[in-house]
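Reviewer 2 asked us to include a model.

Predict the structure of this chain.
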Amino acid sequence: MKFKVYSELSYEVFSPTTFIFNIQAAKSASQKVISETLIVTPFIKFEEFTLKNSDTRFVKMEVEQGVFFTVIYEAEVEVSYTVYDEKVLLKSIPIINLDHEVLPFISPSRHCESDKLLELATNEFGYLPNEYAKAKAINEWIFNTVEYKTGVTNSSTSACDTLLDRVGVCKDFAHLGIALCRALDIPARYFTGYAHNLNPPDFHACFEAYIGGQWLFFDPTKLAVANGLVKIANGKDASEVAVASYFGDVTCTFMKIDCNPVVSDFIPFNSELDTKAISYE
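Predicted model (structure tokens):
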């Protein structure tokens, strides 16, 4: 399935500031970037870079005090996903046999304090028969327990904060899902991307759990169409793959995000009726 994604971010800069953006669609075996442009107006020199052993595409730039600028990213992206029958996901993989690349996603991280949630996770979900059933139950529990509300959390809010306050936005829902999965020894990671028909329009955060040898997609907000996403990046949590980081005195003055299928006959999965196990790997 092909999608067109668009992001437009405007900033007013009050002090010399370094910006790091992470808004470009990921390039992978399951996601092909057909075309893309990234324009900064007025022109500001920028540099694209990746980290060692990572496919995440960052852009960095230095902006002087007093500048008002806009970053626009547009791309056409072909996305492939796989739908798995639940029956093939029932077998658990012992930690000793996990791929080495998966192991970092089983440990606590800055925003996902899984070591503090062991008792809760065990009491609420430990009785379930397999890891897929546990991850699905975690997803449903967060949806039913945490209120989606904008403007009540910030970049320092953690999974434990969300559990205590029972309110947050998509990244907070994702962090809690990751932490609860890891507390049950299920590897889990943060997923950020563009989402079709998202309301309110924004970048979206979900999580993936490693079950039966596959990274499976979960969205505890149920705001996204499960087969309508374009991945930007994965990370241990949002601190690794924030869409915009800046080091200075800055105000974001405008943001517009779009993600639409190229074809008109796109059939979205119904998040309430379709319980498909989907992998974007």
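The chain has four helices and 16 strands. The mean pLDDT is 95. We have added this to the supplementary material.
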